[in-house]
């Protein structure tokens, strides 16, 4: 199975034009959404440290740790997720690869192919040996600069398209690895562990209801926010299906004829994932 190491931003505090957010936080939110897409396609992933903004953590030390983990794990791709900044008036997608990397150029072609389908602002690929996470990893490195987070329009686009960006990235990775893309919830089941029937939507996605916790709850919450059914801030640690999430889910179910029961089952997952 292909291996992708996911490395988020580790900055102390790079404020975003969307009030209250910052580069480190929203790149982690994006990777939260990306993970189930990778899993559905049979792509193994390992995640870098999640820094708490404005904490006393050493961001450089966390970055060095990420590269060590990526190399020790034997990642095929070291995927770095950042956003950019300029003067507040610039928009665009500015990914980077290491100079002369044939694998990097091939991967960039695949990822940019699908990003162009969803993003209508300027796209410019560049080569750089300046950044440690481009030059140091043993794996093929791809360094995202998704949008300019100091531009209100670009930042808002990023926050409202996390699901679409995750799907586009996963499609690009699948093309790079030469494997079929499968939307979350449609991948072939793994032989183990056995999931109890009453808890499953498919083998990959659980049926979720109020009181449950986990990464899949958080992913659903973020996808609901993308579609306007969870208009609240989502703390980095929030993985609980609470009353607000149930209320948003019931409204979504009512609006789209999904059966109003407050349980996130097959039909509701299908709507959230665009199936």
Descriptive account of the structure:
It is built from 9 helices and 6 strands; from the N terminus they run βαβαββαβαβααααα. The chain is of the alpha/beta class and 275 residues long. The strands form 2 sheets. A 4-stranded parallel β-sheet has the order 2-1-3-6, sandwiched between helices. A two-stranded parallel sheet has the order 4-5. This is Peptidoglycan binding-like domain-containing protein. Pfam families: PG_binding_1 (PF01471). InterPro entries: Peptidoglycan-bd-like, PGBD-like_sf, PGBDSf.
List keywords for this structure.
single chain, Aminopeptidase, 11% strand, two-stranded parallel ribbon, 275 residues, four-stranded parallel sheet, 2 domains
Total strands: 6
Helix content: 25-40%
Give the domain tally: 2
* Quaternary: single chain
